[in-house]
Amino acid sequence: MSPGDAELFDRSVATLVESWAYLASGSPGAGVTRIDGAAIAVFVRRPDRDFLNNAVLTRRPADLARTMATIEATYARLEIERFAVWTHESEVGTAAALRDRGYRLDTSTRTMAMPIDALVEVDRTGLDVTEPGLEEFWAVDGLPGLVPALDPSAGHFYVARLDGEGVAMLMAFDHAGDCGIYMVGTVEAARRRGVATALSAYAVGAARERGCLTASLQATAMAEGVYTGVGFRDLGRWQEYVPGSD
Fold it and tell me: Which of 5, 138, 181, 218 is 20 to 30 A off residue 23, Cα-Cα?
């Protein structure tokens, strides 16, 4: 039986948290703390701490105030002021409580997932995909030195090239039969040419060959159409709140 939206969502959250733990394994001093109601990713070195400090709230935390106090204390202890707290858009009460606590909405992404047998085959003619070293991978999106001790064998790192130059990147990470698609980027000169769509389809197809049953990701507004065209479906938005008033 094909998984429904609730199962797809739960699988996507589990993979997301495990992907944070995977990235943390490559960053000195980093880690993921799991508490009642949340998972907290902590990165202490730069440039990692500038991008990767996030905490995700489960739906309807039993004691939101206590959970938030733990999140805040975790970051404060390490003098981390820049972090985001993720809550699903359906959690209206949680969002209101965060605003009352002094947080503001910073950005949002759409959580999307799919049964892997729903993959839409797209034209990948001329697509040159490689699995480079991490140095080349991070350089595509201008992030040299990110998570420098990461073991690449636990993930799948793809770069699409045009005329020999890397123009798009994507990290795939498998957990419990779900393939998470992360760290997707396309250089500006190569956008609107179908490269991201083709690379995403390639990555999902490769995950299917590895035996994954589902795939999941978080999409920016600009990329939602790309992923819909591959077969992903909308599971609502993650709203990312940061400390400080508007």
Answer: 5
